[in-house]
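Example (one chain per record):
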Amino acid sequence: MEIETTQIREMIKKDLTDILIRIALVGFLVFMSMKVFSPFMGLMLWALILAVTLFPLHQKLANRLGGKQGRAATILVLSGVLFLGIPTVMLSGSMVDFVQEVHTDYKNDSISIKEPAPSVAQWPLVGKKVYEVWSQAAKNLPALLKKLRPQIEGFAKSALGFAAGMAGGLFQFLFSMVVAGIMLAYGKSGSDSMLKIINRLAGYKKGKMLHTLSTATIRSVSMGVIGVAAIQALLFGLGFIFIDLPGAGIIALVILVFGIAQLPALIFTIPTVAFIWWSGDSTLSNVFFTVYFTVAGFSDNVLKPIFLGRGVDAPMPVVLLGALGGMITAGLLGLFLGAVFLSLAYVIFMAWVDDENFDDGKIEKKGNPDSLVEGKG
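Predicted structure:
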């Protein structure tokens, strides 16, 4: 009996040693893999979001091209770079130039504010007050800047760092479009592989539902919330560049954040139109840009029914917190990644809390549950 007990202990000790060695090796491999992959993590995640979002459109285009996946992916990537990349480059360049120009003027003590035009005092309700404050700032600005120099210098460093991060994020965005195109070309096999991984982690029964839920959430947030806000911000931003509005890129970024927060961008139309008529030279151009910014302000009413047809399960505060936290953490790409991943985490967590959502037939399907594979929904 004592011999059997000793043998059992030896076997347990040997098996335990083998298990610990295997766990240590697997942990080491995971750690080293994450360390090597970490510089590309943001780019690959953003490319994955783009690929999942654009896959239905890619499949429709591929069907029209006779099933040629690679050609359809190439067309989508080139179209994205042309229609989204170029305006984004223009706005980001405007933002960086504005920040650097203000910083240079501040260092050279050459910042000045022009005296307001007498017509400002004639503005309804607030004209006289705005005229007085504006005049005081124009006369005493150098003294005010010297008084606030420590705070301004700290803010300027943060602004320059943010501008540099925006420039870096822009190049990541453009490169991620190319990577997303490669993912789209192999989208069906990639979707099948991801489903196998989720089934392995969550089980076959829950894995398919979790796969469907994740896909629907990524698409609804990226298209219905971020996509609409980005398009509207680009429309305003391009208009700002053409009317030579100071800080066009920064104001466009504010409009983007407002759009993610589901606040109407129309509130920017009124001051923009006032700026156009106050500083414009041609009545014809003033009328054109007035109509342009009015249409841009109302564009979300047309875009949301198109892109937000499936709805967004995550509450808007979750989307907004994810966007703002991501932007603070990782700049321009973080704004998009944070909103998508925090929304996804919320939806999956709530589905776990209400475990019946994972049961077959009890989860509310928005679109076709096999939409990632078939390109529908």
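Caption: Residues 69-107 form the longest helix (39 residues).
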